[in-house]
Structures are given as structure tokens and as C-alpha cells.
Amino acid sequence: MFNKKKSLGQLPSMATATSYLSAVHQADSRARGHDISPASTPALSTSSSITSSSEDTVLHESDDNNTGLTYPRTPPTSEQVFTTVHSEFGHCADESYRCVSQHNPDKPVTEHEIEEPPYYILITTYISYLMLIVFGHLRDFFGKCFAKQYFTHLMPYDGYAPLNSDFDSFYTRRLKRRMDDCFSHPVTGVAGRTILVYDRHSEDCNYTQIYPGTKTRALNISSYNYLGFAQARGGCADAVEESIKRYGVSACGSRLEGGSNELHLTAEALVARFVGMEDSLISSMGFATNSTFIPALVGKGSLVISDEFNHASIRVGVRTSGTQVRMFKHNDMQSLESLLREVISQGQPKTHRPWKKILLIVEGLYSMEGSLVNLPHIIELKKKYKFHLFVDEAHSIGALGPLGRGVCDYFDIPPRSVDVLMGTFTKSFGAAGGYIAGPKHLIDALRIRGHSGIYAEAMPPPVLTQIISSMASIMGVTPPVSSKAALTLSPSSSISTLRCPEDDVHPGMAPASAIPSWISLPPALSDGSEARMRIRRLAFNSRYLHAGLKKLGFITYGHPFSPIVPLLIYNPGKMATFARMMRTRQTPIVVVVVAYPATPLVTSRVRFCVSAAHTKDDIDTILQACDELGDILDLKHGHSERWPLEQIMRQSVELVNNI
Amino acid sequence: MSDTPTLSSTLDPLLTFLAYSLSRLESTFYKLPGSAVVTRYVKSSHQNDPGRTILELILVIFAIRTLLQSRTRGDKQGKHFIQFSEKEIDELVDEWTPESLVQPLNDWEQRDLSSVPVTTGPIGPKPKLLSNGKPVINLASFNFAGLAGNEQIKEKAIETLRKYGLGSCGPPGFYGTVDVHLDLERNIAEFLGTEASILYSQGFSTISSVIPAFCKRGDVIVADRSVNFAIQKGIQISRSTIRWYDHNDLKSLEDVLISIEKERKKRKGPLTRRFIITEGIFERDGEMVDLPKLIELKLKYKYRLILDESVSFGAVGRTGRGLTELYNVPAKQIDMLVGSVANGLCSAGGFCAGSSIVTEHQRINGTSFVFSASMPPLLATSASEAISHLRNTPSILAALHENIDTIRSVLDRTEGITVLGHRASPIIHFCLRNTQQHLTVAPPDHEAEERVLQDIVDDGLANGVLITRGKHLRGQEMTDSRPTIRIATTAALSRKDVEKAVGIVKASIARVLAKRR
């Protein structure tokens, strides 16, 4: 409440609903000028006049609002102040729609629980695939006989072998193409709470798409925008704009060959502090963080133990390193332990020499399953079996834990009991790229021996600024104590300077000296109150969607706190229909459907990615849509107790708290 | 006597039940369609050869067993597996002491790390150093066309930021394809004159993803022995059959192509995909490939060409279109033209241009395209803006090449070094001149040379010029190349500045080499 008052006092506000509406009109008529920087000049008094911030809280585009996407269905009262654009970050003032993402130590860690669908679903799914495959092959066969012109790229031509063999591309041509309209949909604007998708249709079975040029605003439950930092307005965007003016757009070169800037050091120091490690390094691409630094950790004579559902980037990294790799069943601690006992006792194949080292690579939050790693158990195993632990927090960083510091924070495990923490900035921070954090000697070695340091371009300054500003606002910035708020740089121009002072406690706030002085975050961001609200909103939304879908009778996977909520669909045909029907509802919703080969063949699913930007109304909208489609498409096969939709919507808070 | 009837009476119901269920089973079996055939087959085969029945029974059991076996069982059944008791395993676990995750840095690596320059403030031709706040002339960063800090591009970036935010928050397949990405892809394709192009979010990860998207096990790759690290990694992941030819020696390439063709004819193997992979301008030494000749060979022997133009795109040709513009070769003749948006257009990311079949294929098969978030929109619009800038102002490239000539002419006359590479290359490598040429049999001491070169770099930096060694991951690279210093030229510096800078470099070389003797 205190925080809220404070923000009330310090931000130029619109006092009434009427002023809100008039601001809408004003902004519509106003020309688009970007010379204003509202966040850097916070008004001191509680003036209720419509200042520049009105342009920040409503959209320029004149959408019609019958969908409830552009403006809130219920206009804000005079008490409420929102500084975000509703279509980017939803307005939700009800403090009861919040929840704390934290592990309850009294409860055992839930592992990957899988609810089985009825047999007829499995059988029809297999039959669907069988038919698709049979028809695909028939079409290929007859097509090659009678319509050669469509198959030239699959047949030897003029002494060249086909670029892709018909066998390799069979899945893409014959299965995926049928539902190509559900993938790679071009969008425009901010990938926030809502997104503008280009309308398109195909008249030749998805070989080509026709774009009439119109756009539709849809509720976005697909982007990895967990904390809602995908914003074109607000403190972070202002900081990024300033950084472009100051530093330019590109870093021009690799980190070790002249591309290092002070911003890199600042960001790395902040990341280390954020995750609670001694040091960290930043790579300009999330995928490359794994694929170029894992080879620097392991080599010949080492063993990598990897979860079977680990991300492709980890697999590429391990493959590039040339290390032996063994897999264990997803999140199955018994399978892991027996594998550990086997590999340690057997040693290297044939020679039986002991392994030089064993590196266990797991993800914090699995992107297709929504399941959470059983970190407490792994830490126990680590003590006994002495392996090294690498946790990929691509999805969990920012999204889990009471302070958003990832799985360690969620389970209340000291981060330094993990050897290497890796994560990305694409998701919770609304930026791009990735980091690796660990002890200083390890990070230094990776800087020199990792592939990215020498060969890959360094991260561009605007992206670094987005990371710094969003991360600082999650941590909160302590006001400078003394006037000497300078960066603690060591005298040598080393790439690995900027150390945190020893008295630093994790997870604490960021000292003002840790962020560049030219970044001036608005008060709600710099005191961390807004980010705390975001984390709690995300936790509520995730739990609510999980619980709601369960109570509606769907089969879902994943941990209740996971912002990734997979809803199982099974039949391939239903999957495409689900996506299309969601997109063409009165309130359009864009969803991600995933199928083989990203998932096992039968368990096709739709994957919701909840964001803090969603309001409770949005989740209601999604639940309602799922409820209707679930009846039409026969998707409700869960065995748990079912509630009617109205009851779920009414008792949402209760539902979330008693999960 | 009296016991027997009781026993039979207790067994009676059981026996009747058994008989009943047997007859029931038999009747249902005969009701099944085709069961008569099976019975006839079993009967006749049993009559002919009773041993065969047993054999077939064993076969059926074996098949069931194989089906039921877990596919992830590892090598427990392997002949190298040693059975241990639980206690023994516990002991072995206790005994095992793993190495630490990384070996600490050695002295040289430590020095390497601490000598990395860090700039402060605007990144461009004359950045300030963080260590002492002094401005230096930048001959290390890739800013060939001098686009870093361009006001128009900055403006465009800010405009995009205000419309799109920063991150795209998703992979291209899942609502991460923003219209500005498609625009940039179209712009690049138009700029080069290809049918289409595809955008990756990091330059380094582009080609190492493009290669395995096309080259599979059994395919043939013929590559230059001295290709850059990214290509090496791509080749490694592809698991194709790889043949090398001598660095930038197209005669050697032709020999290899001929010998492959001979082998294939001898083996009468099937037609497989065949690729030639090389760089336009080599990142390692600045050599340039003879593109027309290369294309002639590729067409003659029916290979597909993957050309990495990471260095040449945006730096060579009248408007920076790369080698294809320089040699006036239509870009369509190159099957996969890979370039770097980060280097050539001063933004971030990379691209692969080619026919639309080539690019569409990568949208599903290019690992780092599929599994990575797309590039931030503002970087894409900056790159688009950079392209139109290059198109409209050919004078940039003229200035760049004037600067290259200036630097080369001074370095060519400098004692103690050998300048490598093609004279049009925007990166200029030079190495120490070997004083006792061809006299020693011992392998050259690369580390000692690196130290000397690093001294030159440090001395240059102290005097106000930022240059860098051409760094490599020694031990991880396939071939160990000669240690060099790399100068990256830029159009953003005036002739006077360039002359001053190269003068300083020359003086540094002289100073360090004099100290060494």
C-alpha cells in the first residue's frame, strides 16, 4: 500500500476515469512525437492534469475496443494510477490477484506427473499420424509419376543430388505444411500482453500465404514475456533510448578483439549480483551461450549427463565439445542416481579409467513441459556423487522465486551450491542474449576459452541497457549513500573487473553505483515495487491458469508456478483447429501449438506462456475460450474434480491459494 | 482308498472349469478370421519337422523380448560391463575424485585477458579507453563502412524502439517473426540480388547452423584448409565426409574434386550432395578467393557453393555488396551466401542468402534459427537503414579503400613484418618476418611470437592506437595458423588520422623489435 501511495505521489497521473477517456481521445489526435521523455522528469506534485504521460498509457492506434484488448473493460477509478499501456502491460489493480512464488518446504517436490488420456484418444492419434503418413507417401509416389514439376527440388537434377531428400523433408512437406498457418505468423509492434498479427490466408494449401495488409490485435499468450518487460514505453525503454544516443547501436566486434565496452562490464557485474554468483559473462545470443561455452567446460575424458528434454542449444554444445554424453529420464531422480552409480563405477567405456569429471546439465524450467527441476534432490546427489552442476535457467530466471532470482530462489538454495548458472535475457527481461555465472576463475577461463569471446560479436549497447535497467528494477536500487557513486573499477583496463564488494548479500538490492549514472529509472521501478508486483502477478496468473484448466477438466503438464502451461491436445488435427479457432474468436487469442518432433509423437500440445502483463480478466478470457473449445474438440480428459467456469472465475483467489 | 474320491471330487470343478475355458478359447480362436490358416500351418510344419516348431517358438519369444526391452538401457549388456555389488559401487563413488571444472588460467591466458581493451562512451572510430579516459584511434573494431554512431541509424533505432520495444520475446516460429525482420531479409536479398534471405540473430552462429542444415551424413564437403572457426564447427556438427584443399589454392581444389569424382565412379556410389565451403575474404589472413574461377569449378563439377562473406559483405565492392559486386558475378550463382549483419552493417546477427528453397529449408532445419529468439527489431531496422545508406553513398567504400591503401603502403615498407592478405581486404593481418627462413626444422614457437605481437599491441595502445592480435583458440582450431596482428580498417577515419595511426603502429613495431634484439 505504501509503495502504491508513493507512486501515486510521484507520477503524473490521471485522476479520473473521465480524464482517462479524454486522454484516449487526445492521444489519438496527437501526432507521434518522440521528443518527450516523461520518465526522466517526474512531476513533483500530485497534479492530475493530463501531461505527457497520457501518451504513454494509451495507444496511438485507434483500435475498436469491443475485444477488451486495447482499453480495460472497466475503466480505472480515481484511486488507480497506471503507467503502462494497457495493450502492452495490462491494468490490474486488485491486490488479491497476487501470489508469491516460493517453494513450501513441508511439501515434497512434485516431479513430472503425467496424466494419461483415454485409450481411444491415443488410438485415434496414432491412426491420424498413420493416415497422414500413408497419404503423404501416396501423394509423393503419384506426384513423382505424374506431376514432376513439383518435385524437382527433391529429385536428382542436372547432376546435382536433391538439396533435401524426400525422406528427410517428408515430415515438413506432408505433415507440417498442413498446419503451416499456425507457425511463423508475422507480427508487428510490441510482443506484450497483446500483439498485432498480420492477417493472412492461403489458397493453395499453405504453399504460399496471401497478406491483404490488415492487422488484428490479439491477446498474446505465446511470447516469453514473463515479467512483461516487452514494452515500448516506460523506464526501461527510456533508458534504452538514452543508450542509443550515447553509445550507438552496435558493439562492432568481439569481446576480446576490441568490442568490449564499459556497459558490458556493468551488465556482467549486475548479473553476477542478481543471480548471487561471483562473476558472470554475457553472450550476444541465448542459443550461443550454451552452444559456445559448454565446449570450453568439458572435453575428452569427461562425461556430460543430460536430461532427455534438454534444449537443442545444450545438445549442440555438447556435440561440438566431442564429450561422451548420457541421458536420464526427464526429471527422474532415481534414473539419475542409478545412472550416476553406473557411470562412476564403470568409468570410461572400454578403458574403465575413471572419468576426469562429470557435468550434469539440467534446465531450471523445461520449456515444453513446464516442469521444474528437482533442485534440492540434485544438490543432495551432488554432495554424494561429486559431479559438477550446470543449471540452464533460460526460462526460470526472473520468472520464479519470491524475488525473481530463478530456481535457487524458489527453493531457497544458496546459488553458489550450483557450479554454473546459465540463463537468457530474452524471456523475463525483454532483451536478448544470455549469461553464464559462476566463480570468478571459471568465468575468466570461459572468457578466454569459450568460442564467443573471440569469434562472436559482442552484445549491442541497447540490449545491454535493457538488461541493466530491467534487472536493476527487479532488484531495486538502493539510493546512493555518499556522493561518490562511481563505478568500482580496478585500475587495469581488464575485461574482468567490476567486482562486487564482499559485504554484498544475496539477494539484496543493487547499489546505485552498480548502474550507470545516466540511467534514471522512475521511482516505481527503482524502488523495486513495480517489479515485485510483476513477479507476484506472474505467480498468480500462472497458478490461476494451471488450476483453472485443471478444474475445467483438461490434462495439463507442469509445475503450478511455472509460467509455461502446456495443455495436452494429442490429435494432430485438433491441434491446428484449436489454434485457428482461438485466433478467430471475437477476442482473438494467439497460441503456440507444438507437436512432434519437439514433443513425443502422441503428446501434441498447446503451450501457454503466462505473463505478468496479463490481467485476471485475460486469464478468464483464455479459460472461457478453452472451455468452449474443449467441449467442441473433446479435449477434457482429466480425472480430477471439475468446476463450472463461473465458479472458477469467482473463486479464483481461493483456487490459487489452495493449489 | 477313501481319500481318492474326495480328492477327485475337490479337483472336479477345477478340471471342468479348465476344460470349459479351453474349449471356449478354442472356439473363439476358430471364430477369428484367418485362424484356420494358422492352425493348418502350425500342424503341417509340426508334422514335417517337430524341431522347427521349437525353433519358431524361440524366435517368437526372442522377438517379444526385444520389443519389450527398453531402448535407453545403455551398455549394461555390453561385453565391457563389469558387475559390481552395491557396496562396491559405494566404495568406488567414495574413491572417485573428479578434476575441477576448469583448469585455472595460465600466465599467458591471464595476460591475454587482462590486456583486453575496454572502451567507454560512444563506440566508433575514436573511442575513449576506460582505463585512462584517453581517446584512441580504433583500428580493431569492425566498423568498415563507418556506420557506427551514424545519426540516421540511431534515429531509426529509436523510432523502432518506440514502436516495437526491445526484445522480440520469442523464436521466429512462435510469433517472433516481426515485420521488420522480413523487411530486412527482403532488403538483403534485393541488395545482393538473390531470391531470398534468412536472418539469424548472431553472426557467428549463422554458418555453423547453415552447414548442418544441408550437409548430412554421407554428403561430401570440400573445404579450404584454413576456414574460420564457425565453419569448422558447422562441418563438425554436420558429420559429412570432409575433404580439405590447400589454403586459397584453386588448383588444389580442382585436384580434390577430380579425385572425389574418380573415387565415386570406382565405387559406383549413389549421387550425394556435394558442397564447396570457403570464405570470400578469409578472417584469418585477409586472403581473397578468386570467385569467378571458383564458380567455374563449382559448375563444372556440379557442387553447391557455401560462401562465407562475413568479412567481405559491407566492405568490398562499389557499394559494399561483397565479392559478387567486386567480381561482377551474379549472387544467384552462389547457392548459399552467408554474411554478417554485425560486421558489414554494424548491427548484430547474420544472414544466409540464396534461392527461396534454400532459405525456406533453413526456417525449419537451421538449428540456431529455429531454437533461438529472433533478433531485437531495432537491430533489424538499423541494418535496413545501413543498407540504404550503403546504396546511396558509394563514397564510403571509396574512402574505406583509400584508407586500406594508405595503411598497406606504410606497412609494406615496415621492417621486420610481413603483410598478409589481398590488397582489397578491409582486415589487414601482418606477422613477424621470419629471420632464419627455411633454415630451422623445429616448429615455430607460436607462443613466443604471440608475446612479441602483444607487446606491439600494448605499445600501440599506449601511444593511442587500438589494434588487436588476430586471436584464435589454439588447440581447438583445426590448423594452427601463424600468429598475426589484425588491423580492421574503417571509412570513418580521415586520411590524416589513418596516416597518424599507422605511423604509430610502425613506430611501435620498430620499438618492440629493437628491444627484442
TrEMBL record, chain A:
Cofactor(s) this protein requires: pyridoxal 5'-phosphate
Source domain of life: Eukaryota
A GO term, aspect molecular function: serine C-palmitoyltransferase activity
Biased composition (Low complexity): 36-54
Residue segments, region Disordered: 31-77
Keywords: Pyridoxal phosphate, Transferase
EC code(s) of this entry: 2.3.1.50
Enzyme class: transferase
One of the record's GO cellular component terms: serine palmitoyltransferase complex
Family annotation (InterPro entries): Aminotrans_II_pyridoxalP_BS, Aminotransferase_I/II_large, AON_synthase_class-II, PyrdxlP-dep_Trfase, PyrdxlP-dep_Trfase_major, PyrdxlP-dep_Trfase_small
Biological-process GO terms, alphabetical: ceramide biosynthetic process; sphingosine biosynthetic process
Catalytic activity as recorded in UniProt: L-serine + hexadecanoyl-CoA + H(+) = 3-oxosphinganine + CO2 + CoA
Residues of the Aminotransferase class I/classII large domain: 219-467, 530-625
Family: Belongs to the class-II pyridoxal-phosphate-dependent aminotransferase family.
Protein name from the UniProt record: serine C-palmitoyltransferase
Organism: Boletus reticuloceps
From TrEMBL, chain B:
Thylakoid found in the keyword field: no
UniProt xrefs under InterPro entries: Aminotransferase_I/II_large, AON_synthase_class-II, PyrdxlP-dep_Trfase, PyrdxlP-dep_Trfase_major, PyrdxlP-dep_Trfase_small
GO annotation terms (biological process): ceramide biosynthetic process; sphingosine biosynthetic process
GO cellular component: endoplasmic reticulum; membrane
EC number: 2.3.1.50
Pathway: Lipid metabolism; sphingolipid metabolism; Sphingolipid metabolism
MF annotations from Gene Ontology: pyridoxal phosphate binding; serine C-palmitoyltransferase activity
Residues of the Aminotransferase class I/classII large domain: 135-503
Protein family per UniProt: Belongs to the class-II pyridoxal-phosphate-dependent aminotransferase family.
The protein's name in its UniProt record: serine C-palmitoyltransferase
Organism of this sequence: Boletus reticuloceps
